[in-house]
Structure formats: structure tokens, C-alpha cells
Amino acid sequence: MNADEARLKLRELLGQVNPSELPKLLDWMKNSDELDQLLLDNNKVILQSIAEDLRARLPVDAMLPSETAAQHKMQQRQRPTVHVDSFLYSEDQVDALCEEGAMSRNYCLSCGSFRTAPLDFISHSFSVSELQFLFQNVLPDLSGRTVVDVGSRLGAVLYGGYVYSSASRLIGLELSEDFVRLQNDMLHKYGLSDRVQVLHANVCTQEVLLQGADVLVMNNVFEYFMEPTKQIGAWKFIMQAFRRRGALLVTVPSLQEIGGCGLYAAVLKSWVEELPVDYNVYLGRDADPEELRQIHLYRVV
């Protein structure tokens, strides 16, 4: 049964429900955990297990002491901002941490008063739902293809690509030796090394790798970790190296939003074209539709 047939059957079924009971049924469909359990497949369980192992080895904000540039960048934002890694923490887990006092969603506008405002949360990783969306809805069949994740950090894209795609090679590029070690530990523990590799390298040294890549993933990769001039240099290198026609580029946010780094529209049009993405997919209550819409897909022209 395909989706159209399922929708028809569902409408027929709802038409048979007593009108007075219909609101209760619709509320159950929207809010019950029972339906979400149908979406809890073994792949998601594996990713959640990896996230649990990583949480045990990292501070709550999942930031390393060496990430001074990123921390400084967050401090410069107009509103107080904290890093909450979406791969490590679901919304329910964030709520639990707030209840325990280990995290807060608000900050005090006037010390000692009851005037508070919400903190801004940012993440440098995809959530489990976003990984599922990326590999099952955004990207095509990746059989025989190579995926490169720039700034692989905790390895979320690599783990997600392993369980949710048939990509033959998943390669992460990471500058932090500590994060490289952490990713390799997870690859070894969960037996993912047959298709996944993490390189301790700057993307600007990987021309040959980019030339052969079929998919390049860049999730919020430079803004918090490089000075603007270095960001421009990195983008210029990527645009020169990642040139094979038909290769796919995934970015968060869109290239237009990254335009402040010197990515001019005329240059982008000569490099890639944006492809449509169907965001109308239900992936469970943990999936944030607004976050899904931050994922953009491009094809090298």
C-alpha cells in the first residue's frame, strides 16, 4: 500500500467514526506515544545508543575547552546563547535536564528579579530525526557513492549515513583531535569501520577527496569556527575542488543565508543549483519542522 492508498483508507476509516468521538481520536493521533513507537526502528535505537555513550563522555554542552573561537562567537550574539547538541539531546531530554537544574531554557533580565527571557539554543549536529530525513527523504539512493561530512564533530552524519543509507563510503573531516578520537571509539564499538572513516584534516587540504565525492555535507560548519576571511578562503577552495557535475551538496543553513561570508549569487549560480525538497514528512514528535526546513540540497552544474 502506497501513501495515497493509505490516505484514502484512513479517510474511509475516519468517516466511520462516531462524530462525537472523532475529536478524541484525532487528539490521540496527534499526541499519543503509541504511534511514535511504530517509527522507532532498530536504526534509531542504534543512534540513540551511540548518543548515550557520547553523553557519558562529554560535558552537557558538548563543547571542548579548546573550542574558544566558537564559545567567543556565541558570547557575541545579541541574545544569550547556549550549545545543545541535537544528536545527543532530544527535546524531552532537554526538559529533563532543565527539571534537574543541569540546564535552563531562560536567563534573568534583571538579576534577582522574576523577569526572564528564553535562551537561544544552537546545535552543530543533526538530530536523529533530521538524519533520518536527510538520508531517507532529501538524498537519493546512495549505493556505491561516497559521502563526505565537513566538520564531522561527534560523527552524527557518519552514523546516520551508515544506518539510513547504502553509501559505500562515509568520510568525516574533523580538525579536533579529541573529536576524531571520540568518533573512532564509536566506530570501533559499534562495528561501523567497514564503511566509515574519520580524517584528522582541514578540508582545504583534501582536494582529491572532494573531487571524488558524490555528496558533500556541511552543517553550520564554518560560522562558529573560523574568522570571516578564512571562511571565504575555505568556500573558494570547496567551490574549486567540488566541481564534478551532478554531485550533491547539503548545507545548513542555505547558501543564500551563508552569503554574508562572500558567497555572491552570481558565483553560486555558476557552481550549483538548488533542488526541491519535500518537507511534509512526519518523523515523530521529536522532529522539528522548522529545523528540517533548514536543510537545503544543491546539485553541481
Automatic annotation (TrEMBL):
Superkingdom classification of source: Eukaryota
UniProt GO molecular function: methyltransferase activity
Matches recorded under SUPFAM superfamilies: S-adenosyl-L-methionine-dependent methyltransferases
InterPro entries the record matches: Arsenite_MeTrfase-like (IPR026669), SAM-dependent_MTases_sf (IPR029063)
Protein name, UniProt field: Zgc:109986
Organism: Xiphophorus couchianus (Monterrey platyfish)
Lineage per the UniProt record: Eukaryota, Metazoa, Chordata, Craniata, Vertebrata
